[in-house]
Amino acid sequence: MSELLTVQDVTMHFGGVHALTDVSFEVQDGEFLCLIGPNGAGKTTMLKAIVGAIRPQKARIQLAGREISGLPTHRRIHLGLALTHQIVRPFRSMTLKDNVALAVGHRRIRRVWTALGGLDRNKERAEALKLLEMVDIHTYADQAVTGQPLGVLKRLEVARALALQPRLLLLDEPLAGLNHVEAAHLADTIVRINREGLTIVMIEHNLGEVLRVGHRLVVLDNGRKIAEGLPRDVMQRPNVRAAYVGKEANDAAA
Amino acid sequence: MGIYELSLATVVGINIILAVGLNLITGFCGQISLGHAAFYGIGAYTAALMAKAGMPGPVNLVAAMVMAGAVGVLVGMTSLRVREDFLAITTMGVGFLFLGIVRQQESLLGGELGISSIPSFGLGKMGFFVLSLVLVVLAVAFSLYIKRSWMGFAFEAVADDEDTARVISVDVPAYKLAAFALGTALAGLAGGLYCYFARFIVPDDFGFITSISVLSMVAVGGIGSVFGVIVGTALLTLIPEFFRFISDYKLLVYGALLFGVMRFAPDGLAGLTALAFKRLQRKGGAV
User: Does residue B250 belong to any structural domain of this protein?
Assistant: First the structure.
């Protein structure tokens, strides 16, 4: 396996807050990597730095050997990244289907003036419907986004990201806000997509799902990487347990 | 049609081109502009100067569009970093900057006295009206086309949520610049037509009041709706003509309208019509 994504020494400070300090890790081609850690560990910041939604003070980020840390977000997406937001950000003026259809047509809007060339949206809308079906929300396809429950909007984020046909999918807590059945089903869908060859980095709090689906874990705490490795090994480590269950619980166990 | 009705219809046409241009920037792409009149003025002054230099009318109209569009791109570039309220203030500043320059520049632009005795376009009143009408139809058709195109789809995304647009690969700055370029070019065309219509232009024709008037036309009609904007523009151009007293309190009336629309019917007449239509349908369905 070769490295698809290399993140080196990412450091991001917001004023006095050290969101990330010298974080490095790699993602192998075809891998399902889970990024875990307590609240405020810097996981979301990390994904935002990878797509360029925020600019770290220091970072080297390579996608398939190409340095991307200087590129604007839309260029990084064109190179094969896709991100779902933890806090949903749909286009509220559009239907669910059009939210996805625009992403399906990402090549048509790549250049402003060629985007003026086409009118037909039917092919992209048909493709969008398939993607909505994949995450079980196709019955809402023609409805407005406004007023939809969180569970639907979380899955819309996933469908829209998949529509970009990425090489690397970054998922920021896609299962949060779904009920057990929905979460298990979406997790299965994500696993299937990964088996079909898509590399995935996922932030997730549901440790049960993390242990079930993740090939490898990277653990962040207070903006630093504290562990990395196979899920079961990593979860045994004292420093990871301390970060998760709190220091006292760990001391009591020892 | 008498001379009066003819010139009134021509003014409505010019204002529609102006408003459709602003609708492209503010309605389609979501970028507020309080300085649209500056580009209208740039078009008017460009065409006037060229006409006085003896250049033919059609060339001058094209030059008015190109000039306004080019300055529009420049202003757009400086505005890329600012959003919403700050963009409103920046564009307002551009409007005042334009006024400041034309008022001070006396040798070329005529200062406060403006430019007078602009040569005729050479078509007569009726011919000029027909030309304006053709250009209105073209501008409206172009605008409708953009709205339905993938460019319009991407504009919609930028207007809705810039950050999300970026994450699905939209080159946000490029689309904003395109909206500015096209919208201000249309303002330039309207300005070129206006200079031939009035044949006498002064800085005040292109001041803040004009910017607010155009914005009111767009907002009353329904931000983003091409047909709404046409209706809004026709209403707001004609009402002050028929009720002269409104004309005296134009800014007050437009200001109140703008406030009222934003507060009570943010989708303007287009939104209200859609709502009424839905209610009628529901009633029809119940019977």
Answer: no
What angle, rounded to 10 degrees, do the helices at B3-22 and B36-52 form? 120
Write down the mean pLDDT value for chain A.
89
Backbone angles phi, psi at A128, to 5 degrees: -60, -40
Residues 6+ apart with CB under 8 A from B102: B41, B45, B109, B111, B114, B203, B206
Is any Cβ of chain B less than 8 angstroms from the Cβ of A151?
no
Half-sphere exposure in the Cβ direction for A41 (13 Å, CA): 22
In a domain, residue B32? The reply is: yes
Are A43 and A201 within 8 A, CB to CB? no
Tell me which residue range forms the domain holding B194: 3-213
Give contacts of A90 with chain B, Cβ < 8 Å.
161, 164
Question: Which domains does chain A carry?
Answer: 1-80+166-254 (3.40.50.300), 90-165 (no CATH)
B282 inside domain: no
Average pLDDT, chain B: 90
Write out pLDDT tens, residues A11-29: 999 888 889 899 999 999 9
What's the gap in Å between the CA of B193 and the closest CA on chain A? 26
C-beta atoms of B171 and A112 within 8 A: yes
pLDDT at position A245: 67
**Beta strand pairing status for A224-229 and A66-67?**
unpaired
- Total domains in chain B come to 1
**A87 three-state secondary structure:** coil
Query: Cβ atoms within 10 A of the Cβ of A65, count?
Result: 9
Asked if B148's CB is within 8 angstroms of A77's CB, the reply is no
CB of A41 within 8 A of CB of A54?
no
- Judge whether B278 is closer than 8 Å to chain A, CB to CB: no
A48: part of which helix (H) or strand (E)? helix A43-51
Query: Which tokens hold the place of B111?
Result: 């200062």
Q: E strand or H helix at A82, and its extent?
A: strand A81-84
- Which stretches of chain B are DSSP H helices? 3-22, 36-52, 57-79, 84-104, 124-148, 150-160, 162-167, 172-198, 208-221, 226-242, 244-248, 250-264, 268-286
The predicted structure's pLDDT at residue A254: 46
Q: Does B81 contact chain A (CB < 8 Å)? A: no
Cα atoms found within 13 Å of the Cα of residue B129, Cβ hemisphere only: 15
Q: B204 lies in a domain?
A: yes
**Does this model's pTM top 0.95?**
no
